[in-house]
Amino acid sequence: MLYKIVEIRDHIYYVGVNDRTKHLFENLWPLPKGISYNSYLIDDEKVALIDTVDICYSEVFFRKIRSVLGDKPIDYLVVNHMEPDHSGSIEWLVNRYPDITIIGNNRTMDMVKGYYGITDNVLTIKDKDEVKLGKNTLRFYLTPMIHWPETMMTYVPKLKTLFSGDAFGTFGSLDGGVIDSQLNADWYFDEMIRYYSNIVGKYGSPVQVALAKLAGIDIEVFCSTHGPVWTEKENIDKVISLYDKLSKYEADRGLVIAYGSMYGNTEQLAEIIAASAADNGIKNIVLHDVAKSHQSDILRDVFKYRGLIVGSPTYNNQLYPGVESFISSLRNRNIKNRLFAYFGGFSWADASMRYLNAFAEEMGFEVVCDPVSMKHSLNADVAASARKLGRIMAEKLK
Ligand code: FEO
């Protein structure tokens, strides 16, 4: 046996892989601590594999499967999610296990055909359908839009184990341990917020629907497609309440100030606003220069904190490009329930305030204070207005 494979519950084995090579997930989101692509094998009278892994890791994946099964065949491949970080090895797997039956819903099968040209040996299931493996039974729950339309979850009632797809997942590789009780899970929670805000953040309503669906199910083990397997009650409660909170767009008392600044004038306004908010009792304040901070981190902090202040110089009679891109990512995620304010600078025509005002109206944000607009550079009146803005935001956040 090449690998000592972790047994999560009776005859449920972890056969996922770690990716510490890729710089950007979806070629968009940084992976400073890597990522895991989780897959699980249920070795019952019938053998079921839950999801596959990114195609770059097919060979390692296969060796792990063989470490559990040897020459024994796999009867079912359950496809909870078709994004290629999980479906990438499907065609490769079918070539090695030609008799395998692929289980998914009708949307899954459309994608299995489209991505991999596979139409034979498929079993199309509906919500709450079951497939018996032997001692254990698989029950399927359709949970569309977490994070694609075909996404579903697979539950094993006897072992109270849920294979949840992307839901409850995090960025970050598994460096040794796989189950939360085997590792220090503390740092994964911040990465879970970043993962949620970057990948799932647009789909707050479907997440709420899924949480309501799962509410009546007795779950002791959460097996997501990324990050640790959650088994400890304290962690499970934390993970569920985090998803509940994030999907309702609820946030902690704190403030994100995201700004663009070409020569440092708009940045000085950001500094004055931040200092004033701190003077008035706000401890959690994060300043992001949109040209320097990655959008991935700014989004994480916007999902964490209730206050949001955006600053932009006018650039070619528009917003500063980095600010335009940033607010577009907020729009894309339907961010709600934020206390909002804005500020900016201009040299001959003030356009950025108009765009940021329109953005606030479009998003339904509560604008807590008049904007601070600065012509050319800082003066005493503008500085006083910036201090006022910081103070009012702090008072609103209380
Ligand atoms: Fe981990 Fe939506 O894929």
Report on the structure:
The protein is α/β, with parallel strands linked by helices. The protein has two domains: 7-247, 4-Layer Sandwich (Metallo-beta-lactamase, Chain A); 252-397, Flavodoxin domain (Rossmann fold). Helices cover 35% and strands 24% of the residues. The chain has helices spanning 58-69, 84-87, 90-96, 106-116, 188-200, 204-214, 233-247, 265-279, 295-304, 321-332, 352-363, 380-397, and strands spanning 7-9, 12-14, 17-19, 24-25, 29-30, 35-37, 40-43, 47-50, 76-78, 101-104, 122-124, 130-132, 137-142, 152-156, 161-165, 221-224, 252-259, 285-289, 305-311, 314-315, 318-319, 339-346, 366-367, 372-375. Strands 1-2-7-8-9-10-11 form a seven-stranded mixed beta sheet. Strands 17, 18, 19, 22, 23 and 24 form a six-stranded parallel beta sheet that branches. The longest helix has 18 residues, at 380-397. The structure holds MU-OXO-diiron. MU-OXO-diiron (FEO) binds next to helix 2. MU-OXO-diiron (FEO) binds at residues 81, 83, 85-86, 147, 166, 225-226.
